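Table S2 (continued). Query chain:
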Amino acid sequence: MQLVDPNGNTVATSQATFDAAAGSSYSGSVPLAIPGSLAVGNYQLKEALTFDGQTEYSTLTIPNNINASISLASSSYSAGQDINGSISFAVDSAFVQSYLAVQVSAPQFGISQ
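Corresponding output:
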């Protein structure tokens, strides 16, 4: 198995070997260590199963997306006024997001937080 990041880089791999006779079925787990830092975007979990000299492939898409929106309390502001706004996030991810960093910047006004 391979976990491939949104840029096409393999970030984790795992492998398991098992015996199966014709007509039998197998159910088991193949541990795959998730890296500590994940890029935003869709990941691909790729599997290759080889049996009797033939290989079959399957792919599962795993989302890791964050959608942000900014809204302002007023449609216009005058010089010297504070801009009041809010930021909201929607996380579409199969991974647990334990830490999200937010940076707000308006370089034309000298603001970066």
